[in-house]
Amino acid sequence: MKMAKCVVWDLDDTLWSGTLSAGDEVVLKPGVAEVVRQLDERGILQSIASKNNHDDAWSQLEEFGLAEFFLHPQINWAPKSASVQEIWTRLNINPDTVLFVDDQPFERDEVAFHHAEVETVDAVRYRELTAMPRLSPEVVTEDARRRRLMYVEDQARSEREREYGGPHEDFLRELAMEFRISLAGSDDLARLEELTRRTNQLNSTGIQYSREELDQLRQDSDHDLWVCELSDRYGSYGKIGLALVHRTVDVWTIRLLLMSCRTVSKGSGTVLLSFLGQEAARAGVRLCADFRRTDRNRQMLVTYQLANFRAVWRNGNDYRYENDMSSWHPYPDFITVTVDRDPRTQQD
Hints:
eight-stranded mixed β-sheet; single chain; elongated; alpha/beta; five-stranded parallel β-sheet
């Protein structure tokens, strides 16, 4: 079961009772505000796909005190299928992580016809959303609680970049980014488990690990479990990536490398890999990497290839890559990198 990342709401007779454009005095459905807030606290993103006048509908949401919960709302007269697609594109998530809630069978069918991966939900079931397994993570991490805020911060970055007008690297330098790499502690495990379940494109194997498995590996003397965080002057991106490395006397093997897609355009995607390469070079060992081809992780394959990894073994979709260790690019000069080799011990 794939966890959902976003719930897209209709408005008329879904979030509220009545039809706004018909002049009805609309009222929120009973308990719907609590559903919206509970989903937000779990780290589930939310948006709007509604056929309405934008300014009128948005003013109504502000009056109800709910406007802040909805990212990239599509309030217009376009087909709902187009609105839902615009939302997942702007959020940079996959359509099979989206739930669409609407009271009209036609609208649900229209979305399902164009986007079979999107799960549609009859609005009469809105109270059931908080009990649905796809919307009920076992553990809610601090990063999850801040997820909407992090998207808002990222939107502010994007708006500033559009206004900037200068070279991209100069804009990145203006962000004053700080990239922290550290050995994982017990307080990181819930978030790292979540990353293995939520990250698909920049994921070297697609293998999911439980907290218990990750805890065993981080305490194993033959493994290193690295976690990385990114922040800039707009705020924190949270914990955005991990690397699981198996060490022997003469070879280190990256068993899993993943990075949040939200940060790739900021130049952070290769920092963790460069760090591992520099560490292996200092230790005088070979550096290999496991890679399992999925239908979504071609971007990670390209990342490895650009870093001079070449395939030395293959079995079906499973590959072993090895780096020639001829050179490692320095970190980008617009990112400050710090390394903490002492695992944090704070408990969850």
